[in-house]
Amino acid sequence: MKWGVRHVVDARGSFCPGPITELIKAYRKAQPGDEIELLATDPAAKSDVAAWAAKSKNEIVEMREEQGYIKIVIRVASKGG
Amino acid sequence: MRRIAIIGAGTGGTILANALAKKLRTEVRGGRLEIVVFDGSESHIYQPGNIDIAFRGANPKAFRRPPTQLLSREVKLLKSPVSRIDLENRAVIYDGGAKMGYDYLVVATGSIAAPEIIPGLAQASLNFHRSQEDAVRVWEALSAFRRGRIVVLPALPHKCPPSPVEAVFLIDELMRKRSIRKDVEIIYATPYTRAYPAHGIADVVEPEMEKRGITTYTLFNIDYVDPAAKKVYSLEGEELAYDLLIAIPPHRGADVVIASGIGGEEGWIPTDKHTLKIKGHDDAYAIGDATDIPISKSGVVAHLEAITTAESITSQIHGTGKVYLYNGRINCPLEMGGRKAVFVSGTYVKQPERQNPSTTKYLMKRLFNRLYWTMLSGALEPIFNIYLGPPYEVKVVADDANKSP
Fold first, then answer.
1. Which residues of B touch A20 (CB under 8 A)?
2. What is the mean pLDDT of the segment spanning B80-109?
3. Does a structural domain hold residue A1?
4. Exposure pattern of B208-226 as b/e (b: 16+ CB <10 Å)?
5. CB contact under 8 A, A21 and B348
6. pLDDT one-digit tens code per residue, B251-272
7. Does residue A20 have an active-site annotation?
8. Is B258 helix (H, G, I), strand (E, B) or coil?
9. Does A44 fall in a domain?
10. Which of A31, A40, B222, B341 has minimal CB crowding within 10 Å?
11. CATH number at residue A63
């Protein structure tokens, strides 16, 4: 797999409609091998993104609490499931 | 003479223009200030009315009025489409080449439902977000539907987060009224992990869907539709067959924003989520659906951002040194059928919480449908302020950065 670009998605301060909206916007543009770095303050982002990554067969390479927000990095392994 | 230019006379642009006219009446009447609104539309549409048109067969005429009836007499309406916004030279290009300078600009150009973004979606689906005519087509299709599977499918990003769930509940209600519910399968395929993005609201919505026999598919982000096979495919690798597909299409920003190069390829304008200023500009604001702020695209947000921006521009003109910072308040009604509703309420720092559906909230939503036209004038703001408080915080800046240029 080739290593691609990193798309940074800042969804901090978003509860409704939520970080998944911003993540999917980035995912549509991304290519296999790219990484999406999602920053979020909604605590539900962790479980939401984990569920989405599992279903869409993409890989979470980093998920950690920073000061006042969550950083999640997803490597795009798959498009179309 | 100074000039405030507002592009768009939808909910945000109209409320803003009327609020500025009230606050700056002395300047306008004294010939020292002009408030100009650009909008080429024949009608101002009350967009939540599309729910009533699509799922109750309401008459579209009840939800539209000419913009001229809705704007204060201190506001000058130019019924000309704007072709370009030139932020660097503080100018608006309109009417095929005419140029008008401004001292302050507000872009309130809204968003456009664009099913053509997803392959096959425009041919395969109906929707109630693009226009009143589209909403009428949904009502006609539902009225003719006898048996089979209806799939309701939102695509991101879209305006009015409650609207897909409202559609599902009202389709269920309609099919029960027609005594054909047992012959109709209703499927809700959502892009989120739950039936509603805010978990507190999902806790309320999901048991009701289950009780009414509505099947939910989660994490279904539409990739493409095959209209011939009547199947829709997701980015996550699933497929769903349908007999009637009602989509909430992905939205994009206005053509003029894209053509002016101020909102990227999708047309969302980079905007500070508190000051509502277009990033990098002290004299230009964006409000409502037009911005890239990670908040719901809804009339409520456009309204509250308009109120905040009216305060900010007035402060800049009067040189008070006060900065008004939008707090991200949302307060969106979500109708659940059976004369019940909840309100999705939160701010940038407080997520929407679980609440019980009630008939009172449903009646409040119905009442608001009637009060909308009065609300545009600003006449209800004192009441909103008493019950909800202002949608902003006020800060006094130490230097003259926010004072009159």
1. 156, 191-193, 197
2. 96
3. no
4. bbeebebebbbbbbbbebe
5. no
6. 999 999 999 999 988 999 999 9
7. no
8. helix
9. yes
10. A31
11. 3.30.110.40
The amino acid present at B177, given as its one-letter code, is K
B99, pLDDT greater than 90 = yes
pLDDT at B186 over 70: yes
- Residue B267, amino acid: G
Kindly report each contact of residues B90-94 with a partner whose C-beta sits within 8 Å and lies 24 or more positions away, as own/partner: B90/B283, B92/B5, B92/B7, B92/B38, B94/B38
Residue closest to A74 by CA, chosen among B387, A52, B184, A65? A52
What's the total number of domains in chain A? 1
Nearest-angstrom CA–CA distance, B109 and B8: 5
Mean pLDDT of B221-244: 97
Q: Report how many helices (DSSP H) and strands (DSSP E) chain A contains, helices first.
A: 2, 4
Structural domain containing residue A24: 6-75
Q: Which of A16, A17, A66, A80 is catalytic?
A: A16
Task: Note whether ipTM > 0.90 here.
Answer: no
* DSSP for B138-182, written as a single string: HHHHHHH--SEEEEEEE-SS-S-TTHHHHHHHHHHHHHHHTT-GG
A25-29, B88-92, B192-196: lowest mean pLDDT where?
A: A25-29
Chain A contact for B237 (CB, 8 A cutoff): yes
Residue A47: inside a domain, yes or no?
yes
The packing angle between helices B11-23 and B359-376, to 10°, is: 60
Residue B101 Cα, gap to closest chain A Cα (Å): 34
Euclidean distance between CA atoms A40 and A37, whole angstroms: 10
The tokens describing A49, both together, are 């993104």
Subunit contact A24:B191, Cβ cutoff 8 A: yes
Token duo for residue B252:
């994009």
What is the pLDDT at residue B105? Answer: 98
pLDDT tens-digit map of B355-383:
999 999 999 999 999 999 999 999 999 99
B234 contact residues in A (CB cutoff 8 A): 81
- Contact at CB, A16 and B349, closer than 8 angstroms: no
Q: Can you give the pLDDT at residue B404?
A: 46
For B103-145, the pLDDT digits (tens) are 999 999 999 999 999 999 999 999 999 999 999 999 999 999 9
Instruction: Judge whether A80 lies within some domain.
Output: no
* Domains along the sequence of chain B with CATH: 2-56+63-110+254-396 (3.50.50.60), 129-251 (3.50.50.60)
pLDDT of residue A10: 87
First to last CA, chain B: 13
